[in-house]
Amino acid sequence: MSETIYDGLTQLGHAAPLPESPEAAVLERVPNPQQGIGYVVRFTAPEFTSLCPLTGQPDFAHLMIDYVPGDWLVESKSLKLFLGSFRNHGAFHEDCTISIARRLVETLDPRWLRIGGYWYPRGGIPIDVFWQTGAAPEGVWIPDQGVPPYRGRG
Known about the structure:
Blueprint: E1 29-31, E2 41-51, E3 58-68, E4 72-74, H1 76-84, H2 93-108, E5 112-119, E6 128-132
Antiparallel strand pairs: 1-4, 2-3, 3-5, 5-6
């Protein structure tokens, strides 16, 4: 049997329970078969949830993750499980958003990454959190994230 870039993945194609915490989650990666080409990968998680670390009340966000791959691509099922692991995790909006981005950067070493965390209001105030690794690579089309400021997000 010949080797493929998908060999070694432990979650895709297998039963994989939701990790108990973001720290326990395993982000998997595969070699980028289009190395040398500048392109953007976008993941949208419009129903992201976490918990307020003080009250335990649920917090909801629409996450937009854009990255320009280098040598690696994130395996999407592992990303889904990683994001789902925040469901019972208590942290402020800023910490959740930046922790997700930093973990992806650590795992993938992308040419560029940005995250937009568009959080639904709690206490009447939406908190939106944005971060990127630096300037976008020249010559790569980076689309607008297209999530409007809070007006009943839709």
